[in-house]
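Protocol check, entry for the methods section draft. Step 1: assemble the input record (protein sequence plus ligand SMILES). Step 2: submit for complex structure prediction. Step 3: store the structure tokens unaltered in the notebook. Ligand used here: flavin-adenine dinucleotide. Step 1 record:
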Amino acid sequence: MRTVVVVGGVAGGMSTAARLRRLDPQARIVVVEQGAEVSFANCGLPYFVGGEIERRESLLLHTPRSLARTLGLDVRVRTEALSIDRAARTVTMRGPAGEETIGYDALVLAPGAVAVRPPIPGVDHPRVRTLRTVPDAEALRDWVTGGARTAVVLGAGFIGLEAVEALSRAGLSVALVEAAPHVLPVLDPELASWVRDELRAHGVAVHEGMAAARIEDRDGQALVTLGDGTELPADLVVLSVGVRPRTELARAAGLELTDAGAIVVDAQQRTSDPHIWAVGDATASAHATTGALAPVALATPANRGGRVAADSIVGRAGRHSPDPLGTAVVRVFGLTVAMTGASRRALGERALHTARVHSGHHAGYYPGATPMHLVLHFGPDGQILGAQGVGQEGIDKRIDVIATAARAGLHADDLVDLDLCYAPPFGSAKDPVMILGMIADNVLSGVLVQADPVTPLDPEACLVLDVRNRDEWDRGHVEGAMLVPQPEVAGALESIREQAAGRLVVVHCASGFRSYLAHRTLAGAGMPSASLSGGFTTLSRAQPDVVASPALAVG
Ligand SMILES: Cc1cc2nc3c(=O)[nH]c(=O)nc-3n(C[C@H](O)[C@H](O)[C@H](O)COP(=O)(O)OP(=O)(O)OC[C@H]3O[C@@H](n4cnc5c(N)ncnc54)[C@H](O)[C@@H]3O)c2cc1C
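Step 3, stored output:
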């Protein structure tokens, strides 16, 4: 009989154990979890803090007893794995009954990650908490229901934003502090600006590009002082500035780690020791787009890794863990924000094109369409490098479709050919994802030359031609631009040529469609031109300074 010991009894560890049981009904499977709960829904914790999930029990998907009954697992909670003897193939653990050493045929490490605690003076103030475990969530919930009125959240990543939303929905006045230049640093800045607006619209005080300098006690409250001297008093502070892999056990056992301390595994989740596998947040994977070797701290890769590890342990060849795209989604009040693959910043100097769509989430003639902003980065060969979206409805669906296409090796221009479902309440006959594909097809085939809305427009080198109508111009326009509404472009070719005086004509409309039409007209007349990707909507977000009437800029 094979003995398998699993360290860590939540996402990755429990997926491994459950799959193992299905593959090997005879195996002795021991799951060791240092916390009081196993198989809890960490992704649900913010919603418990905010009160949307009302009962603590809803977060607990299983107990040691239910796992013993249904899967025959020997689950030991409040038990910490202390050391591994690789030569003897034993794990020593300490639990309520004292220390014990168990021999294993296979060992699985799924210890997850720990919250980073930056060296801010005062970070150990009792009102400063992280949000990683059920007890963490309970402590925050107790304060929320016990009369806390103000909160500061440090870090505007996924969990930070979920904490902000939860605390704000629970009635607290919340300040959010992010050291990076904008909230959700994994997003391209112009898309992140919609997230910032949404936070502010819900009363959140957003401090970007600003770190906490110190935390002090003021009459039992925490007083957070920012780098610029701003003081933020808080009944509670949520520390959410990132995680690091929890790999002390693996390090002490001499397993191969990356420079940043994550466990190195192969595509079968096997570590540098052939009898030890590792899964989840503690492991490094090569990012599917950038190749960067780093942990991807998301539940889906952790769960899938568990399945792959179990298959490998029983000798089932074939399945392997694909390099993750980091597909993720977060709700920020009324907005959904989702992404897959790499952001522009993560792509660095890599040559790329970008397609942008600003459209309704379903056919405009059907009532209730809400705005959707999508970005697709793709290589000169058409490879899908990354996509992001912000909007109220349908964003998760669009990003999942693109993530699926990328996983299948489809190219950006293949998105035109997708067979997507359509009826007016759900989408458009030309779905925004297909429009992204059309733009990519036009760019790759040379029908469309794009100008970059993120790079400053040089008046020496280009004439900006605005092809929107007069009303749109009056609500905000680029300083020094020439206005010729798109239907009039064909009749105004000579005056445009004269104004351009040999410079490139950068054409823009609100979102990129009318400018594409005008660009084709100019190209037909032999005038060098480019259509501004994402139009004025992107430009006014990416470079608000170039807009003549910023207060009136289109949103
Ligand atoms: C608040 C929150 C919200 C999240 N929301 C999302 C989301 O919406 N979508 C998403 O994809 N991901 C989300 N995640 C991330 C996701 O939960 C993790 O990526 C996933 O749980 C990782 O699985 P894991 O098995 O590696 O680690 P975990 O699920 O964290 O489990 C590791 C377990 O190992 C135990 N352990 C560690 N060392 C030892 C030891 N020596 N002995 C015994 N036990 C040990 C720990 O106590 C822990 O319970 C969220 C995470 C948090 C904290």
